[in-house]
């Protein structure tokens, strides 16, 4: 039997730019959650908890390339689902969808690249801000 190391690599490793972007986002959320409790969370601490060097952690953040079993441990450490970390599908947190229309919108949104999701999210925030300004102007609340 011929042993193909390239084949082994593809089955054991995950790698993509989207994963690197989601990893950064999940890490930032973890930093914020820890800060809310008066604790500091750094990449050095993440490296220690993952039993990896800081350089390996930096490589994960740059390339999104890592062993899939480490990706599972990483998702647990950062408090996100493995599905979300690897694919961007499903939500980072559990959500309740109340209508078929909302379910369809969420499904379409989750198929987008993380950069496109962020762009749409920022546009929605801007629309909400403008709507509040109009309401405030109507009621002279400013």
Automatic annotation (TrEMBL):
In Swiss-Prot or TrEMBL terms, this protein is called HTH cro/C1-type domain-containing protein
The record ties this protein, via PROSITE patterns, to: HTH_CROC1 (PS50943)
User: Which InterPro entries does the record match to this protein?
Assistant: Cro/C1-type_HTH, Lambda_DNA-bd_dom_sf
What organism is this sequence from? Answer: Acidithiobacillus thiooxidans ATCC 19377
Which GO MF terms does the UniProt record name?
DNA binding
Domain HTH cro/C1-type: from-to ranges: 39-85
């Amino acid at each position: 039997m011929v042993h193909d190391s390239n084949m082994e690599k593809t089955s054991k490793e995950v790698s993509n730019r989207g994963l690197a972007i989601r990893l950064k986002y999940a890490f930032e959320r973890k930093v914020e959650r820890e800060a809310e409790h008066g604790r500091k969370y750094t990449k050095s601490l993440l490296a220690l908890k993952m039993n990896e060097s800081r350089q390996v952690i930096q490589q994960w953040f740059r390339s999104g390339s890592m062993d899939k079993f480490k990706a599972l441990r990483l998702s647990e450490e950062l408090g996100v689902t493995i599905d979300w970390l690897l694919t961007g599908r499903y939500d980072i947190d559990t959500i309740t969808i109340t209508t078929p229309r909302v379910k369809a919108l969420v499904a379409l949104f989750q198929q987008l690249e993380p950069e496109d999701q962020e762009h749409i999210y920022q546009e929605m925030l801007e629309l909400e801000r403008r709507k509040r300004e109009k309401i405030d102007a109507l009621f002279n609340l400013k």
